[in-house]
Amino acid sequence: MFDRQFHLEPFVRFEELRRHRPVFYVEALDAWLLLRHDHVKQVLQDPRTFSSDDPRWHTEEFETAPTMITSDDPTHRRLRALAQPAFTPRRIAKLATAVEELCESILDEVEARGDRFDLVEAFSGPFPAIVIAELLGVPREDYPRFRRIAAQAVLATRPEPERSVGMRAGQELNAYYGAFLRERRESGELGDDLTSDFIRAQRDGAECSDGELEAMGSLFLIAGHETTTNLINNAVRCLDDAPKLRAKVVADPDCARDLVTEVLRYRGPVLGNFRFTTRTVEIGETVLPAGSRVLPMLMAANHDPNEYEAPGEFQLERRAKGHLGFGRGIHRCLGEPLAKLEAEIAIPALYRRFPELRVDTERDILPVEVPVIHGCRELHVRV
Ligand code: HEM
């Protein structure tokens, strides 16, 4: 099921499956894939029945502290509350000028590369990675290191032996951020970054262990860029298939918001995330016993013809209501305002700089091959 062709165009396979087997067991993952919009919503809106605290994430060999994305309330609520203030739309809007400047300075470097390059290496990778580094306060020149480790950490969602490689990388990322956190705390130099916020909150009596802060920093280093990198990559792939829209984006950067919304629906970078059933539960006609693993596929839900008309068409003016690209319910993406800000700046800026940008058909697109992400490891373009 999860071969390279699937990862390049997941919705093609989802389409066939949704019609015949919308609740579909995948042995390699020991998980039930859910492909209908109503089933996916059922799961995301019922965190008591569909827990995020999968025992697979804390085996004895790879014990780590919980994070908000791998825990249920009340732990989830407590951890999310620590970071929430930094991600309000108002706080994020203040970053706009700095993010625009960073974007333009990276594009200056990209321009010097000539007329063919790997977009991931040159632009879509470094840009969100540096933004999240600055937000956390970690040195921006460390980004190639944490990008490499983060790319390995997501392998934890694959079957063995990659799972162990991913879990080990997750521990390496915790150790990297943990060392930075301790150094920062000992130096006493606190600023207006998220790490300083964590240290101050802990000092002021917030209930959180060092292990939890380490794991939180590490979660941001993964969730904070791998996703936005692929939102940019996926937007480029969508526009490559729609020359008229490409011209419109070049002519009218104000359409960026609608563009980003439709990319999130049509080619969203998060395919889905696992849940674990706490009781026997029915999904459609399938009865799942307690202790089953499910993988609600957001992208499949976003292509469900019961929810969207002509879901296979990329329509700029669709402004899809209720798309699940950022999830739903208590775990809905915390970074949504930041992700939107970055993408709405980066995509028009990229096409302003390179109006003729096209995917390089002489090179293969290398997809990220993990069951929770839709994106590219390499996306070569011509300008
Ligand atoms: C286009 C970019 C992004 C997409 C499509 C995306 C998507 C998602 C989705 C679908 C979830 C829900 C996972 C679940 O239900 O288990 C999620 C959660 C999360 N995202 Fe994002 N994300 C993006 C960018 C970001 C960024 C930039 C950050 C941080 C700076 C971030 C931080 C988080 C965090 C912390 C959670 C966990 C929230 C919780 O469990 O309460 N994300 N994201």
Automatic annotation (TrEMBL):
Keywords: Heme, Iron, Metal-binding, Monooxygenase, Oxidoreductase. The keyword Glycoprotein does not apply. InterPro entries: Cyt_P450, Cyt_P450_B, Cyt_P450_CS, Cyt_P450_sf. One of its GO terms (molecular function) is iron ion binding. It comes from the Bacteria. Pfam families: p450. PANTHER family: P450, PUTATIVE (EUROFUNG)-RELATED. Belongs to the cytochrome P450 family. This is Cytochrome P450 hydroxylase.
